[in-house]
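During the second year of the project, the team shifted from modelling isolated chains to modelling whole assemblies. The rationale, set out in the original proposal, was that interfaces cannot be judged from single-chain predictions alone. As a representative example for this report, we include one of the complexes processed in the last quarter. Its constituent sequences, exactly as entered into the pipeline, are reproduced here:
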Amino acid sequence: MLKTQTEYKTFGARESTYLRTSMTNIVKIRLAAPGDLEGMMRIEDMCFGNERFDSDTVRAYLARKDAFAVVAVTKDGIVGSAMGTASSRLGCGRIGSVAVLGDHRGKGVGNRLLEACEMEFRARGITHFLLEVAVDNIDAIKLYEANGYRINNVIGGYYSRGKDAYLMEKDVAMEGRRVRIKPS
Ligand SMILES: CC(C)(COP(=O)(O)OP(=O)(O)OC[C@H]1O[C@@H](n2cnc3c(N)ncnc32)[C@H](O)[C@@H]1OP(=O)(O)O)[C@@H](O)C(=O)NCCC(=O)NCCS
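Output from the structure prediction step:
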Protein backbone atom coordinates (compact mmCIF):
# COMPACT_ATOMS: atom_id res chain seq x y z
CA MET A 1 0.00 0.00 0.00
CA LEU A 2 1.23 3.50 -0.73
CA LYS A 3 2.22 5.62 2.24
CA THR A 4 0.08 8.51 3.40
CA GLN A 5 1.17 11.82 1.84
CA THR A 6 3.02 10.00 -0.92
CA GLU A 7 2.69 12.03 -4.06
CA TYR A 8 1.63 10.08 -7.11
CA LYS A 9 4.03 10.66 -9.94
CA THR A 10 2.10 10.26 -13.14
CA PHE A 11 3.74 12.22 -15.87
CA GLY A 12 1.33 11.51 -18.71
CA ALA A 13 0.86 13.77 -21.72
CA ARG A 14 -2.19 15.35 -20.14
CA GLU A 15 -0.30 16.35 -17.02
CA SER A 16 2.59 17.88 -18.90
CA THR A 17 0.19 20.00 -20.97
CA TYR A 18 -1.48 21.15 -17.78
CA LEU A 19 1.83 22.02 -16.15
CA ARG A 20 2.95 24.02 -19.18
CA THR A 21 -0.23 26.08 -19.23
CA SER A 22 -0.47 26.55 -15.48
CA MET A 23 2.99 26.67 -13.90
CA THR A 24 1.73 29.02 -11.17
CA ASN A 25 -0.89 26.60 -9.94
CA ILE A 26 0.58 23.11 -10.08
CA VAL A 27 -1.81 20.38 -9.02
CA LYS A 28 -0.36 17.57 -6.88
CA ILE A 29 -2.15 14.30 -6.26
CA ARG A 30 -1.58 12.54 -2.93
CA LEU A 31 -3.29 10.20 -0.51
CA ALA A 32 -5.62 12.07 1.84
CA ALA A 33 -5.04 12.33 5.60
CA PRO A 34 -7.54 12.97 8.44
CA GLY A 35 -6.60 16.67 8.38
CA ASP A 36 -8.01 16.90 4.83
CA LEU A 37 -11.59 16.31 6.01
CA GLU A 38 -12.63 19.97 5.86
CA GLY A 39 -11.26 20.52 2.36
CA MET A 40 -12.85 17.28 1.17
CA MET A 41 -16.24 18.30 2.57
CA ARG A 42 -15.95 21.54 0.60
CA ILE A 43 -15.50 19.47 -2.57
CA GLU A 44 -18.54 17.35 -1.61
CA ASP A 45 -20.69 20.47 -1.04
CA MET A 46 -19.64 22.23 -4.23
CA CYS A 47 -19.69 19.22 -6.56
CA PHE A 48 -22.57 17.04 -5.33
CA GLY A 49 -25.13 19.23 -3.52
CA ASN A 50 -27.90 16.98 -2.15
CA GLU A 51 -26.08 13.82 -3.25
CA ARG A 52 -22.93 14.65 -1.25
CA PHE A 53 -21.40 12.27 1.26
CA ASP A 54 -21.87 13.43 4.85
CA SER A 55 -18.82 14.00 7.05
CA ASP A 56 -19.17 10.59 8.76
CA THR A 57 -18.94 8.86 5.39
CA VAL A 58 -15.87 10.83 4.32
CA ARG A 59 -14.29 10.23 7.74
CA ALA A 60 -14.87 6.50 7.24
CA TYR A 61 -13.07 6.59 3.86
CA LEU A 62 -10.14 8.26 5.63
CA ALA A 63 -10.07 5.87 8.59
CA ARG A 64 -11.00 2.41 7.36
CA LYS A 65 -8.28 -0.04 6.37
CA ASP A 66 -10.30 -1.23 3.36
CA ALA A 67 -10.83 2.31 2.09
CA PHE A 68 -8.77 5.30 0.99
CA ALA A 69 -9.10 8.80 -0.41
CA VAL A 70 -6.86 10.82 -2.69
CA VAL A 71 -6.84 14.59 -3.07
CA ALA A 72 -5.72 17.05 -5.72
CA VAL A 73 -3.96 19.97 -4.06
CA THR A 74 -2.78 23.39 -5.28
CA LYS A 75 -1.15 26.17 -3.29
CA ASP A 76 -4.71 27.32 -2.52
CA GLY A 77 -5.81 23.99 -1.03
CA ILE A 78 -7.79 20.95 -2.09
CA VAL A 79 -9.39 21.27 -5.54
CA GLY A 80 -10.45 17.67 -6.10
CA SER A 81 -10.89 14.34 -4.40
CA ALA A 82 -11.61 10.69 -5.08
CA MET A 83 -12.49 7.85 -2.74
CA GLY A 84 -12.43 4.08 -3.02
CA THR A 85 -13.08 0.87 -1.13
CA ALA A 86 -11.04 -2.24 -1.74
CA SER A 87 -12.38 -5.72 -1.15
CA SER A 88 -9.45 -8.13 -1.28
CA ARG A 89 -11.87 -11.00 -0.61
CA LEU A 90 -13.94 -10.21 -3.70
CA GLY A 91 -10.88 -8.96 -5.58
CA CYS A 92 -12.65 -5.79 -6.54
CA GLY A 93 -12.22 -2.07 -5.96
CA ARG A 94 -15.16 0.33 -5.94
CA ILE A 95 -14.68 4.00 -6.72
CA GLY A 96 -17.09 5.91 -4.48
CA SER A 97 -16.57 9.33 -6.00
CA VAL A 98 -14.34 11.51 -8.18
CA ALA A 99 -14.86 15.26 -8.06
CA VAL A 100 -13.01 18.37 -9.18
CA LEU A 101 -13.93 22.01 -8.48
CA GLY A 102 -15.41 23.80 -11.52
CA ASP A 103 -12.43 26.10 -12.21
CA HIS A 104 -10.05 23.15 -12.36
CA ARG A 105 -12.06 20.89 -14.69
CA GLY A 106 -11.02 19.94 -18.20
CA LYS A 107 -7.32 19.97 -17.30
CA GLY A 108 -6.74 16.30 -16.57
CA VAL A 109 -7.19 16.47 -12.77
CA GLY A 110 -10.15 14.03 -12.76
CA ASN A 111 -8.11 11.71 -14.92
CA ARG A 112 -5.16 11.80 -12.50
CA LEU A 113 -7.41 11.23 -9.47
CA LEU A 114 -8.90 8.18 -11.19
CA GLU A 115 -5.41 6.89 -12.07
CA ALA A 116 -4.35 7.36 -8.43
CA CYS A 117 -7.32 5.26 -7.24
CA GLU A 118 -6.40 2.52 -9.69
CA MET A 119 -2.76 2.62 -8.49
CA GLU A 120 -3.96 2.23 -4.91
CA PHE A 121 -6.19 -0.73 -5.87
CA ARG A 122 -3.31 -2.38 -7.75
CA ALA A 123 -0.99 -1.85 -4.78
CA ARG A 124 -3.54 -3.89 -2.79
CA GLY A 125 -3.54 -6.66 -5.42
CA ILE A 126 -6.91 -5.65 -6.91
CA THR A 127 -7.32 -5.63 -10.67
CA HIS A 128 -11.10 -5.32 -11.12
CA PHE A 129 -12.59 -1.85 -10.66
CA LEU A 130 -16.21 -0.72 -10.65
CA LEU A 131 -18.30 2.37 -10.00
CA GLU A 132 -21.80 3.76 -10.32
CA VAL A 133 -22.53 6.97 -12.22
CA ALA A 134 -25.79 8.83 -12.95
CA VAL A 135 -26.99 8.03 -16.49
CA ASP A 136 -27.04 11.76 -17.37
CA ASN A 137 -23.59 12.63 -15.96
CA ILE A 138 -21.96 12.94 -19.37
CA ASP A 139 -18.65 14.50 -18.16
CA ALA A 140 -18.08 11.66 -15.71
CA ILE A 141 -19.13 8.93 -18.16
CA LYS A 142 -16.71 10.37 -20.75
CA LEU A 143 -13.91 10.40 -18.17
CA TYR A 144 -14.53 6.77 -17.21
CA GLU A 145 -14.93 5.55 -20.80
CA ALA A 146 -11.70 7.30 -21.80
CA ASN A 147 -10.03 5.35 -18.99
CA GLY A 148 -11.30 1.96 -20.16
CA TYR A 149 -14.49 1.57 -18.06
CA ARG A 150 -17.47 -0.02 -19.82
CA ILE A 151 -21.18 0.18 -18.96
CA ASN A 152 -22.24 -3.27 -17.76
CA ASN A 153 -25.65 -2.62 -16.22
CA VAL A 154 -28.30 -0.02 -15.36
CA ILE A 155 -29.29 0.25 -11.70
CA GLY A 156 -32.85 1.61 -11.49
CA GLY A 157 -33.55 4.32 -8.88
CA TYR A 158 -29.98 4.25 -7.53
CA TYR A 159 -29.91 7.93 -6.54
CA SER A 160 -32.09 9.64 -3.93
CA ARG A 161 -34.54 11.21 -6.39
CA GLY A 162 -35.04 7.94 -8.26
CA LYS A 163 -32.44 8.65 -10.93
CA ASP A 164 -30.88 5.58 -12.57
CA ALA A 165 -27.16 4.79 -12.49
CA TYR A 166 -24.87 2.95 -14.85
CA LEU A 167 -22.65 0.29 -13.35
CA MET A 168 -19.29 0.72 -15.08
CA GLU A 169 -16.44 -1.79 -14.80
CA LYS A 170 -12.83 -2.21 -15.83
CA ASP A 171 -10.60 -5.25 -15.50
CA VAL A 172 -6.83 -5.06 -15.82
CA ALA A 173 -6.03 -8.63 -14.72
CA MET A 174 -4.82 -9.62 -18.18
CA GLU A 175 -2.86 -6.42 -18.78
CA GLY A 176 0.76 -7.03 -19.61
CA ARG A 177 0.37 -10.79 -19.87
CA ARG A 178 1.88 -12.40 -22.93
CA VAL A 179 -0.37 -14.42 -25.18
CA ARG A 180 1.46 -17.56 -26.29
CA ILE A 181 0.40 -19.17 -29.50
CA LYS A 182 1.43 -22.80 -29.72
CA PRO A 183 3.29 -23.69 -32.89
CA SER A 184 1.20 -26.11 -34.97
C1 LIG B 1 -16.36 14.23 -13.81
C2 LIG B 1 -15.25 15.14 -13.33
C3 LIG B 1 -14.62 14.54 -12.08
C4 LIG B 1 -14.16 15.26 -14.43
O1 LIG B 1 -13.08 16.00 -13.91
P1 LIG B 1 -12.07 16.78 -14.88
O2 LIG B 1 -10.93 17.21 -14.05
O3 LIG B 1 -12.79 17.82 -15.63
O4 LIG B 1 -11.64 15.60 -15.87
P2 LIG B 1 -10.41 15.64 -16.90
O5 LIG B 1 -9.95 17.02 -17.12
O6 LIG B 1 -9.41 14.65 -16.45
O7 LIG B 1 -11.08 15.11 -18.21
C5 LIG B 1 -12.21 15.78 -18.71
C6 LIG B 1 -11.90 16.43 -20.04
O8 LIG B 1 -10.90 17.39 -19.93
C7 LIG B 1 -10.03 17.39 -21.09
N1 LIG B 1 -8.61 17.44 -20.67
C8 LIG B 1 -7.91 16.51 -20.04
N2 LIG B 1 -6.63 16.90 -19.88
C9 LIG B 1 -6.53 18.13 -20.39
C10 LIG B 1 -5.47 19.07 -20.52
N3 LIG B 1 -4.24 18.81 -20.10
N4 LIG B 1 -5.75 20.26 -21.09
C11 LIG B 1 -6.99 20.51 -21.54
N5 LIG B 1 -8.01 19.66 -21.46
C12 LIG B 1 -7.79 18.48 -20.91
C13 LIG B 1 -10.28 16.16 -21.83
O9 LIG B 1 -10.66 16.56 -23.14
C14 LIG B 1 -11.41 15.48 -21.10
O10 LIG B 1 -12.46 15.34 -21.98
P3 LIG B 1 -12.59 14.05 -22.87
O11 LIG B 1 -13.41 13.13 -22.04
O12 LIG B 1 -13.24 14.55 -24.09
O13 LIG B 1 -11.23 13.48 -23.11
C15 LIG B 1 -15.78 16.59 -13.06
O14 LIG B 1 -16.55 17.00 -14.16
C16 LIG B 1 -16.64 16.70 -11.80
O15 LIG B 1 -16.11 16.90 -10.71
N6 LIG B 1 -17.95 16.60 -11.91
C17 LIG B 1 -18.86 16.75 -10.76
C18 LIG B 1 -18.76 15.61 -9.80
C19 LIG B 1 -19.18 14.32 -10.45
O16 LIG B 1 -20.26 14.23 -11.02
N7 LIG B 1 -18.33 13.29 -10.32
C20 LIG B 1 -18.60 11.96 -10.83
C21 LIG B 1 -19.37 11.18 -9.81
S1 LIG B 1 -19.58 9.51 -10.34
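The helical segments are 13-21, 37-48, 55-63, 109-123, 138-146. The chain has one domain: 13-171.
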